[in-house]
Amino acid sequence: MNLIINFTEKRGEVELKLQEGKRLIDTLTFEFEANLDSVLILAVDKICKRNKIETLSLKMVKITGKVEKSSSAHKIAQTFIEAIKASKQAIIAGS
Question: What are phi and psi of 28, to 5 degrees?
Fold first, then answer.
């Protein structure tokens, strides 16, 4: 499964898209103000639990949409993606 973090055209709104290949499995839209980090974590946990998958089992997580790469929102989402990758590597290294 893949997760797309899509910053919509509406300021302060993100849509999570859970996909298997190109097939859309589920979506979850949420709004944020200055709390993107905690809201993003909760939203990803929610969509994963709803679809009975583990966050670390996601094959790919990427950012799309209307967000500048230099913005705080993009940096927070990118840090979240890097944390998932680091967790996967730690599990592999510990095996």
Answer: -145, 120
Token couple for 37: 């980090």
The one-character DSSP state at 68 is -
Which CATH class, in words, describes the domain spanning 2-94?
Answer: alpha beta
Nearest to 44, CA basis, from 76, 78, 3, 83: 3
- pTM as predicted: 0.91
Query: Residue 47, SS3?
Result: helix
pLDDT tens digits along 2-29: 999 999 999 999 999 999 999 999 999 9
Q: Where are the alpha helices (DSSP H) in the chain?
A: 36-50, 72-94
Q: Tally the residues of the chain.
A: 95
